[in-house]
Amino acid sequence: MDETRLNAFMGKLVNDMGGAAMLANVIVGEELGLYRAMADNQPVSPQTLAEKTACNPRLVREWLSAHAASGYLEHRDGLFRLPEEQAQALAVENSPQYVAGGLGIVASFFLDKDKLIKAMRGNGALPWGDHHPCMFSGTERFFRPGYKGHLINEWLPALDGVVAKLEAGAKIADIGCGHGASTVIMAQAFPASRFVGFDYHAPSITVATQRAEEGGVSSRVRFFEGSAKNFPDNDYDLICYFDCLHDMGDPVGAARHALQSLKDDGTVLLVEPFANDSLDDNITPVGRLFYAASTFICTPNSLSQEVGLGLGAQAGESRLRKVFAEAGFSRFRRAAQTPFNLILEARK
Q1: Which end of the chain is less enclosed by CB atoms within 10 A, N or C?
Q2: Is residue 222, in this structure, part of any structural domain at all?
Q3: Do 290 and 195 have their domain in common?
């Protein structure tokens, strides 16, 4: 045994243990409003922060100390400061970098641990609807900042002729819409167009309908419970899949139904987690995150459905291209990308 390698691995493991513990502290801080109370970037004492947030001052001091030890906060002379850069990720919810609200996803991993163990020892199935409710709210809050930051200004303009159609008045389906974040963002940007969202998780449809009302677009947006393989109508200008196709049991069947539901000059917008085509090329911080999440969410959800293809969150462009080719699409290309997403376009 190489003792140097052992010690290096133990250092990595301790670092990861600390990271996991800190994420739990971030979840607590976000829910209690501790970051928002520090968003002015001014130094604050534990006592003052506790008074501002109606929290226990001794526990607040320990929470702040953990953040200072992790480099999340600055500490000097007993005062703590949340720098502007960290605030973008932890306190400013309309920032494209905001991530704290999305950590409900991570919380659900631990809350759903026994369910995944049962799936691992059985047929691999863990349906989306069986997760803890913090999974659903966390998913909305994890993806919404990225959609707000990129969808209107970058992803839709990267598609051939789509923005002009949306500006003139188009019909759009958002499949696997969840809480409707992507649907509402598009509807707010294109008031001449009509949008319909479909998701097979009924509680999400209820929330999505509420989000449309809150966003002032309920007159042009409707949400319905439904499957990716049986949603109605066949005259869509644009059909969207935001971070959901790889979760489906039968993505080929879903893509085939989209082909039948599009106008002849219609477009599919497929947004998927960024991935290269091989495991060796995905051994990165982003790949680690997505493989780990896919173990708990994406793959077991697919295995719970008919066909159960189990693409996983790191399917990669080549595998997704094969899905759409098998479904009958003749054109498929990468339109854009971010460090976290592939933006793919499919045409008849």
Answers
A1: N
A2: yes
A3: yes
